[in-house]
Structures are given as C-alpha cells and as structure tokens.
TrEMBL record:
This is Cytosolic Fe-S cluster assembly factor NUBP2. InterPro entries: Mrp-like_CS, Mrp/NBP35_ATP-bd, P-loop_NTPase, YlxH/NBP35. It comes from Chiloscyllium punctatum (Brownbanded bambooshark). GO terms for biological process: iron-sulfur cluster assembly. It is found in: Cytoplasm, Cytoskeleton, Cilium axoneme; Cytoplasm, Cytoskeleton, Microtubule organizing center, Centrosome, Centriole. It comes from the Eukaryota. Pfam families: ParA. Heterotetramer of 2 NUBP1 and 2 NUBP2 chains. Interacts with KIFC1. Interacts with NUBP1. The lineage of its organism: Eukaryota, Metazoa, Chordata, Craniata, Vertebrata.
C-alpha cells in the first residue's frame, strides 16, 4: 500500500515493530545503513527520486538475526528518537507500522505524535474470529487514547489462483466489513492472499510496478484512493 501511495506522493515509513522489523526486507533495503547529518539521522531512501524513505531498528542491528530484548522504557526512548531525531524532510504522509496488539510501542507512538495531530489508525484484520477479536481491542485502544480510526482493511480475504486468477474464500469472509459496520468506522476494502504479492514482499520487489494488471493491485489501489480522498493534507497514519 505504501508503494501505491508513493507513486502519487512523498511517503515516509516509520517501522516501530522493534522486535520484528520486516519493512527493510520487504522494500529491498535490508543491507542499508543509517547516516548522521546536522538535522539528525538520515532515513534510508528506497528509490532514486527519494519519494519514499524508511527508518527502522533493522538498520541499526549488527545482523538480521539479532534479537531485540528490551523493556518498555528503552523501547519508548528509541521511538521518541525516531520521531524527533530523524531528518524526514517534507512528507505528504508518514506511515507508522506497528506490531500487533496494544503494547508499549503503541502507547509511546500515540503520545509522541499527539502534538502533530495524526489523522488516525488504519486497522488490518483477517477474516477469522480470533483476528477480529484482536482488532476489537485495538478499536477500544483507539477510543481510550483519542486516536481517530481511518478505517478497517480485511487482509487474506480469499486466495487468488496464480493460474486462473479466480479468488476462493479458503478462510471465512466478511468479518472485517461486519466489524466496521458494528463499530461505525469506514470499511476500506479487502486484500486477497496472492502468491505474486507474497513473492514480491519476500524478494523485495515492487508489486505495484511488477503486476499492475492483477486483481490484488486493483484492490490495493481502491483502498489507497479511499484513504487519499479523505486525507488531502499532510498526514500520519498508523497501521
């Protein structure tokens, strides 16, 4: 989704999944290094035109296999540093990728960004009841912390056959849309399980550029268009 927004606007990605930083691998910048400038840390740019930049703890680890075994205060300190000491430059969107749940990372980033008045949280669920229950708790978290909800996306909604492109609901379906209706928040759409998307993320390829005619591209693009139509000014999204 970030790559689709990037094709239209200047995008920054803040990866605060401190124990499982996967964004650098997905965007093929795993071996990049963070440098210092007068304004602070320089984020890693994904493209030559510098339309997308990333900051992640993955760039600060000695090896990709290093485990981050930190308590809450140390996590909070690094998140504050990522927000205040990174030279993000002029961005249209800052997308914050969080781990699942409602833990230290979520509390810290909401507190640190409150003064910037973020547009809100983008909640992602899968169709199964277990995942729906987790997202219900995240909705409660947003309500208690005063964080608006941009909308809900249902991920892994059906399986797209790589041969015939037919979509089959191997899990249940409609859970995300039902939750959005019950919670009175926007339902932004469904993204199916697509082997082409999975392989692109594993290999660090740009799915949007590689498969512009796929049904999954259309699904992602429709979601992005809904988000952009509701957010015309510079924005911060939590996912």
């Amino acid at each position: 989704m970030s790559q689709d927004i990037q094709s239209k606007l200047m995008v920054g990605i803040l990866d605060i999944d401190l124990c499982g930083p996967s964004i650098p691998r997905m965007l093929n910048v795993l071996n990049s290094a963070v440098h210092q400038c007068d304004a602070g840390w320089v984020p890693v740019y994904v493209d030559k035109d510098k339309t997308m930049c990333i900051m992640s703890i993955g760039f600060l680890l000695e090896t990709p296999d290093d485990a981050v075994i930190w308590r809450g205060p140390k996590k909070t300190a690094l998140i504050k540093q990522f927000i205040s000491d990174v030279a993000w430059g002029e961005l249209d969107y800052l997308i914050v990728d969080t781990p699942p749940g409602t833990s230290d990372e979520h509390i810290s980033v909401v507190e640190c960004l409150r003064q910037h008045k973020p547009d809100g949280a983008l909640l992602v669920t899968t169709p199964q009841a277990v995942s729906i229950g987790d997202v219900r708790r995240e909705l409660t978290f947003c309500k208690k912390t005063g964080l608006p909800v941009v909308g809900i996306i249902e991920n892994m909604s059906g399986f797209v056959c790589p041969n015939c492109s037919e979509c089959t609901n191997i899990f249940s379906s409609g859970g995300g849309e039902a939750l959005a209706e019950q919670s009175r928040v926007p339902f932004l759409g469904c993204v199916p399980l697509d082997p082409q998307l999975s392989h692109s993320l594993e290999e660090g390829r740009n799915f949007i550029q590689a498969f512009p005619k796929s049904a999954t591209f259309d699904a992602i693009n429709n979601i992005v268009e809904k988000i952009l139509s509701n957010n015309n000014e510079s924005s911060t999204l939590h996912t």
